[in-house]
Specification:
Shape: globular
Number of strands: 15
Helix content: 40-55%
Largest sheet: 9 strands, mixed
Bound molecules: 1,6-di-O-phosphono-beta-D-fructofuranose
Strand order of the largest sheet: 1-2-13-12-7-6-3-4-5
Number of helices: 23
Length: 557
């Protein structure tokens, strides 16, 4: 490796890696789609009334067909929307390869900085040389991403103007639940204007919450959870060696606890908080603190004053007293509400705030450390979500546990020692080299998007299924986005959204955790997954997450 080279050996090697293709995509030019009615999918009538143009579409299933019409050159625009997720570049390289393979005159344009690039027509042409550099690389830096939401009619008009100006046949939106909702709305808008420009979504997010009976997992979840599990394993080994710290590790993943659950299955921490369980059992901060302190006390009695505690990033929104507080804060801070302006101008923001919150929320707000108070007041993201990545709940829990253990000590109920380290794992798992799974999955998703465009599908999300099986057995097609939508309140208004999939406590991943977790409390059963492997035995390089395997009913060793 030369110190003067800007490419590491692994970077160069990964550029050469050839993702395996599902068998059907090996015969790209012979792939056609047939429509299949979606059973049991009675959409909400208020959704159907919002999508008159795209409401009556069926699933598209790909198969090898003969006598297909000749493929024509296509001009396609692509953008990333929202947070980074490993594998994104492979969606673009796959899309490019497939478009050019289907017709050598096809052209691909990348919108810069996310949806805002589409609105303001900031683009680059994606060429053969450009894609070469980004094959199997992490991040979204080829064209960047952003969180602008296309929501006003001026923005829809501007997006259409850009698409027409560039003479596009299609726009591909690579994003999470909110971005794919936007894709559905844009498809509907364009069709309502009588234009023939397709909009295709691709399921992205490390959070793993864009999934349902049609989408097995969003890309990025595999790489992020394996990366975090590697780091958790390293920290566990350090804890086991030094025997002096409790590590409170908060894991990115927004509201849903899929990442925390997956990392727990991979590493066996002493305790893991699953936000959905907290919600179902209405556990307060004190209840969770008591449970953690019980674990610490049991371990202390066995002479162990160290351990690993995992927390999901969005836990705070699931604790009942904080849920109420956040809801009230969201209303008070909503930009179109008069309080927001008054609060902005107030010299003593907290005094004014206390007059606007209920007694219960005031009590909760006053009980938490000042830093967390400030974090709860920060701006919401453009989709109206609290920016949970910025709320240091690991510190909230450490403070609460310290206080509770001190009280137990005073009463003679705890004789151990407690010293804690807080960690937040998030950004280190979003832009790293995609695992072989994500490289292959994303490459296939790019191909699928190209085929859906050739079939003139619009308002569809690209899907690849049977992901727990070998790559050549994967199946491909498209699902109408409208069929995944439900009405939900956002900013005090009913809006069509693709529902976030939270951890289902009746599904195999959580049930498996529930069966195993007691045995992890006292004994040190830590597992050390190590870094993602790109070469070597298939058991090392082609592994799937436990979540995917368990949800696909695969037996685990
Ligand atoms: P997406 O939902 O856009 O995929 O974002 C995922 C995520 O990584 C969340 O897990 C996290 O809460 C959020 O992005 C942080 O984003 P930002 O750095 O923009 O605050």
């Amino acid at each position: 490796m030369s110190v003067h080279s800007s490419c590491s050996p692994l970077q160069l090697q990964r550029q050469q890696y050839q993702p395996k293709l599902p068998s059907i995509l090996e015969h790209l030019r012979q792939v056609g789609g047939h429509f299949k009615a979606l059973d049991g999918n009675e959409a909400d009538p208020s959704i159907l009334s919002l999508f008159p143009q795209t409401k009556d579409q069926d699933e598209i299933v790909f198969s090898i067909q003969s006598g297909l019409p000749a493929h024509t050159p296509k001009r396609v625009g692509v953008l990333f929307s929202g947070g980074q997720a490993s594998g994104g570049h492979n969606v673009i390289t796959g899309l490019f390869d497939a478009l050019v393979n289907l017709h050598h005159e096809s052209r691909l344009f990348g919108f810069l900085g996310g949806p805002s690039g589409l609105i303001s027509d900031q683009h680059v042409e994606i060429t053969h040389d450009l894609v070469q550099k980004y094959r199997n690389q992490g991040g979204f830096d080829m064209i960047g991403s952003g969180r602008t939401k296309i929501e006003t009619s001026a923005q829809y008009e501007a997006a259409l103007y850009t698409a027409e100006h560039l003479k596009l046949d299609a726009i591909v939106i690579i994003g999470g639940d909110d971005s794919n909702t936007n894709a559905a709305l844009l498809a509907e808008f364009i069709k309502s204007k009588g234009r023939n420009i397709c909009v295709i979504g691709v399921p992205k997010t490390i959070d793993g919450d864009l999934k349902n009976e049609h989408i097995e997992i969003s890309f990025g979840f595999d790489t992020a959870s394996k990366t975090f599990a590697d780091i958790i394993g390293n920290i566990a080994r350090d804890a086991l060696s030094a025997k002096k710290y409790y590590h409170f590790i908060r894991l990115m993943g927004r509201s849903a606890s899929h990442i925390a659950l997956e990392c727990a299955l991979q590493t066996h921490p002493n305790y893991v908080v699953i936000a959905e369980e907290v919600l179902e059992k209405a556990k307060t901060l004190q209840n969770i603190t008591d449970e953690i302190c019980d674990v610490i006390s049991r371990r202390a009695a066995a002479g162990k004053n160290y351990g690993i505690i995992l927390l999901p990033e969005g836990i705070i929104e699931f604790i009942p007293e904080f849920r109420l507080l956040i809801n009230e804060l969201n209303t008070v801070l909503a930009p179109d509400k008069p309080h927001a302006l008054a609060l902005d101008a107030a010299t003593d923001k907290k005094a004014l705030l206390s007059t606007l919150l209920s007694d219960a929320s005031n009590q909760c707000f006053k009980s938490i450390p000042q830093a967390i108070q400030e974090q709860l007041l920060m701006d919401r993201d453009p989709h109206g979500n609290v920016q949970v990545s910025k709320i240091e709940t690991e510190k909230l829990f450490i403070t609460a546990v310290e206080k509770e253990l001190e009280e137990r000590k005073q009463k003679g109920l705890f004789q151990g020692k407690f010293s804690a380290q807080g960690h937040f794992l998030g950004y280190e798992g979003r832009s790293c080299y995609p695992s072989n799974f994500d490289s292959q999955y994303c490459n296939a998703l790019g191909y699928v998007a190209a085929l859906l465009i050739q079939m003139r599908a619009t308002g569809y999300i690209a899907t690849v299924s049977r992901l727990a099986e070998a790559v050549d057995e994967w199946q491909c097609g498209g699902i109408p986005l409208v069929k995944m939508m439900a009405m939900e309140e956002r900013h005090g208004k009913q809006k069509p959204v693709i529902k976030k999939a939270l951890v289902d406590l009746n599904n195999a991943p959580f049930k498996t955790l529930a069966k195993l977790r007691d045995s992890w409390v006292q004994e040190d059963k830590y597992c050390f997954p190590g870094p993602i492997q790109f070469a070597g035995l298939p058991a090392l390089t082609e592994g799937r997450t436990f979540t995917l395997l368990l949800e696909s009913s695969k037996n685990l060793q």
